[in-house]
Amino acid sequence: MNTLTTSPVAPLLDRLFEEAAAVSPFTIPAVAALSSEDRERMLQSKTEYLDLYGRLKDAALPVSRETGVLLYLLARSSGARTIVEFGTSFGISTLHLAAALRDNGGGRLITSEFEPSKVARARRNLKEGGLDDLVEIREGDALQTLKKDLPNRVDLLLLDGAKALYPEILSLVEGRLRPGALIVADNAEMSPDYVAYVRSPAGGYLSLPFAKDVELSMRM
Ligand SMILES: C[S@@+](CC[C@H](N)C(=O)[O-])C[C@H]1O[C@@H](n2cnc3c(N)ncnc32)[C@H](O)[C@@H]1O
Question: Is the CB of 142 under 6 A from ligand 1?
Answer without folding.
Answer: yes
